[in-house]
Design a protein that fits this description.
Chain A is α/β, with parallel strands linked by helices and 355 residues long. Helix content of chain A is 28%, strand content 27%. The chains are: A alpha/beta (355), B alpha/beta (264).
Chain lengths: 355, 264
């Protein structure tokens, strides 16, 4: 934060903040995951962990959020803040940060989190590192913000040494959500900010919720079956869905399959799409560009099916089949169905699914 | 109306390769392109120009090698282009970049709509577009895939986390454009001829624009890259089967069951 060219003494800044995103009276999972990591950082700095919750009538949610490990929640209730709006949210956050001077502020790298962080870091003139995957505290007490660069082939350590607060965004599923402790106590602090109708500079005129095609979304699924350019056209995604259904999973795709117009962009895994870390990732007809690896290499187990034994993705496979996906995938579906039927006939009715 | 499209020139993503010996990124001799999401923003501007009496100005910040992308943008149909180019800008992170571009946009003046790609393929932050809107205190609509101008207002379709939003706002405003939401057109013959004649790229220095040298460049950027680690992917078991599908699939499923990855 600057005042002219004179930087404010950074020792005035203390504490870790997490910007809490919410929807339908619940916290978004990225925000819950950030509370867990924020707790660790706050303890390392010997400072309190604060959640910031903007909305309309969100006091109950603020109380509930404390159970995930917060010391206190700053709450701003205003009808203008009922839904996310770029300008009012940025104005309120800027006022709160100037008032309380946190040392670290964490945001989810969601659409709204990036929209907010990008606007805010320019207003506050401070550093913001996008899509961090790891944090440390360096010897001088700075936040070491570690993010993938060049499509996930390397990790860059970003420091914001002179400016405060140090701000960073984190994608969903990078950190593990902490358990909720309903007995945990903390403070809900109502904050007053100046906000008027003139702060509303854009109006939401329509909203159409995404229908959950095929049920689960890849980010939520324990099993992801992902298709690439090798599928050739949209039709074979049907058999991937069959396979995903048998494994209790969701279908996703590579950037090439999305760019070819075979499946919607919202199913894209990779650097410019979503990050997934399922228990099992089955990559079908995906050669494995670095952009794709960036979105799935944290998967617990990786199965690769590709005709080309030299496909780079085999290098990070736990299991693989070199073969024609148009033969292999239907055979997998057939054998899984047979296994399920055998299990049902036998002593158990447990369906084929991930543990 | 006047539309300003902010673009960056980036190394072609497909060409990014890691040197197997040094484990660093090969940069020398890698061909460049207009950052693909910025090309989608440019196409969106050119479509507005197709239907409305819009002037499209393309703006970039970087070394003079960026002329290549600005000339391509003009050949595609932009009216003119401006490159903010100055050694003191080197090493700027997103804060000085958003500031310097904002100052340049104000120097151009008379704008109604600012368009940026949703993010760049080389740095992938997506911070500069909203940063410009923050500097200029303009309405911003990020992650748009369709923009309509109706009754002097902007209506934009935004891809949010859980659905599609339609936002309405007044001009001037800034929108960022989704990667892949349209197919950028190829340069036209008349466009290429205009570029051949020269003079389609105007170079401005920081002094030309009135940019404060104390607010730009590596030293005045809040963030620094302290170091870069090469990622060594975790070793995987790598049990690869080949042969007849019936046999390879049986071996795979047996292994997945034995390792308790799936439970039949």
């Amino acid at each position: 934060m600057t005042d002219g060219h004179v930087l404010e003494d950074k020792s005035h800044f203390r504490g870790v903040w997490v910007f809490l995103e919410h929807r339908k009276q619940g916290l978004r999972d990225v925000s819950v995951q950030l509370i867990g990591e924020g707790r660790r950082l706050a303890d390392l700095r010997g400072a309190p962990l604060t959640g910031v919750l903007l909305g309309d009538g969100v006091d109950e949610l603020a109380k509930y959020a404390i159970g995930y490990g917060l010391d206190r929640v700053l709450v701003v209730n205003d009808p203008i803040l009922e839904i996310y709006r770029s300008r009012p949210y940025a104005q309120v956050m800027a006022q709160l940060i100037r008032r309380h001077k946190p040392e670290i502020v964490l945001y989810g790298a969601s659409k709204n989190g990036r929209d907010l962080g990008g606007r805010l870091h320019a207003i506050l003139e401070t550093g913001l590192a996008a899509d961090c995957v790891k944090f440390d505290i360096d010897a001088e007490g700075n936040l070491d913000m570690i993010r993938p660069s060049f499509g996930g082939k390397s990790l860059a350590h970003i420091l914001c040494k002179k400016h405060r607060p140090q701000m960073a965004s984190v994608r969903r599923n990078v950190f593990v959500a902490p358990p909720h402790d309903p007995t945990r106590t903390g403070e809900v602090v109502p904050e007053k900010v100046e906000l008027g109708p003139s702060d509303v500079d854009a109006t939401l005129v329509d909203f159409q919720e995404f229908t959950k095609e095929g049920g689960l979304r890849p980010e939520e699924a324990a099993v992801v079956v992902s298709g690439g350019y090798g599928l050739g056209d949209p039709k074979p995604f049907g058999m991937l869905q069959d396979l995903a259904d048998l494994l209790g999973g969701a279908v996703a795709a590579s950037r090439k399959a999305v760019d070819s117009g075979w499946v919607p962009k919202m199913l894209q895994v990779g650097q410019t799409g979503m990050t997934v870390r399922p228990d099992l990732y089955v990559a079908v007809g995906i050669s494995g560009a670095v952009q794709h690896l960036a979105g799935m290499q944290e998967s617990k187990k990786i199965v690769v099916v590709n005709l080309d034994p030299k496909a780079p993705l085999f290098e990070i496979a736990d299991y693989g089949i070199v073969g024609d996906l148009f033969e292999v995938v239907p055979e997998m579906v057939r054998q899984l169905k047979a296994l399920k039927a055998a299990a049902a006939d036998g002593r158990t009715t447990v369906p084929a699914t991930v543990q | 109306m006047r539309v300003i499209v902010c673009i960056k020139q980036v190394p072609r993503a497909q060409e990014l390769q890691v040197d197997p010996v040094t484990q660093t990124l090969k940069r020398v001799g890698v061909p460049s392109e207009i950052n693909p999401p910025d090309a989608n923003a440019l196409e969106m501007a050119l479509r507005l120009k197709d239907h409305l009496a819009a002037e499209v100005i393309v703006l970039s910040m970087g070394p003079t090698s960026f002329d290549e992308s600005l000339e391509r943008a003009v050949a595609m149909g932009a009216d003119r282009s401006i490159l903010l180019t100055d050694r003191i800008l080197g090493g700027s992170d997103t804060v000085p970049t958003a500031y310097a571009l904002s100052e340049t946009i104000q120097k151009i003046g008379g704008y109604d709509l600012l368009l940026c790609g949703e993010e760049t393929t080389d740095a992938s932050t997506g911070h500069v577009g909203p940063g410009i809107a923050g500097h200029l205190d303009l309405p911003q609509i990020t992650y748009t895939s369709e923009i309509r101008i109706e009754d002097g207002k902007v209506r934009a379709r935004r891809t949010a986390e859980d659905g599609t939003e339609w936002w309405e706002t007044t001009m001037p405003c800034l929108c960022t454009v989704n990667f892949g939401c349209n197919k950028p057109r190829e340069p036209t013959l008349t466009g290429k001829i205009r570029v051949e004649r020269g003079g389609v790229v105007t170079h401005w220095s920081c002094a030309d624009v009135g940019i404060d040298p104390k607010k730009v460049g590596l030293f005045n950027s809040p963030t620094i890259v302290a170091k870069v680690d090469t990622v060594r992917l975790p070793a995987r078991a790598g049990r690869i089967f080949s042969g007849e599908p019936e046999e390879t699939v049986r071996k795979l499923l047996d292994a997945l069951i034995a390792d308790r990855v799936i439970v039949p």
